[in-house]
Amino acid sequence: MKRIEHIGIAVKDLEAANKTYKAVLGAEHYKTETVESEGVATSFFKVGESKIELLAATSPESPVAKFIEKRGEGIHHMAFYVDDIQSEIERLKGEGFRLLNDQPKTGADNKIVAFMHPKDANGVLVELCQEK
């Protein structure tokens, strides 16, 4: 793993959260994107070499909607940049970690992604990210 790529924050209202984080960070978001397969609308802010990704559910059945229903708004995941996502998946499985994805899938921000089970990382959903 090379670096923290982004921190994902689940929000109920993307527009309101954009205003909040614009005030907190002193900068506008630079990109919004909908990821249909995950049922989320996203918004990205740059913070040094890392990013903040705001995630709002686009359907009540999406994982983010269920997360907010269960835990409320807040940190949803930590994403780490990797050079070779398939090798990292295999390495983590070899270490005994459970992956939610055996194969990478399309994510936001021109990335392919895979997730590690939060129960194996002290309750934190870990995302692996690689450029497409």
TrEMBL record:
Which residue range or ranges hold the VOC domain?
Answer: 3-131
**GO molecular function term, any single one:** metal ion binding
Tell me which EC number(s) this protein carries: 5.1.99.1
- Give the enzyme class: isomerase
Q: Which CDD domains match?
A: MMCE
For this UniProt record, give its keywords in alphabetical order, as a comma-separated list: Isomerase, Metal-binding
Query: What are its GO biological-process terms?
Result: L-methylmalonyl-CoA metabolic process
Alphabetized SUPFAM superfamilies for the sequence:
Glyoxalase/Bleomycin resistance protein/Dihydroxybiphenyl dioxygenase (SSF54593)
Family note: Belongs to the methylmalonyl-CoA epimerase family.
Cite the PANTHER family for this sequence: METHYLMALONYL-COA EPIMERASE, METHYLMALONYL-COA EPIMERASE, MITOCHONDRIAL
Q: What is this protein called?
A: Methylmalonyl-CoA epimerase
* Originating species: Christiangramia crocea
Gene name, Swiss-Prot/TrEMBL? mce
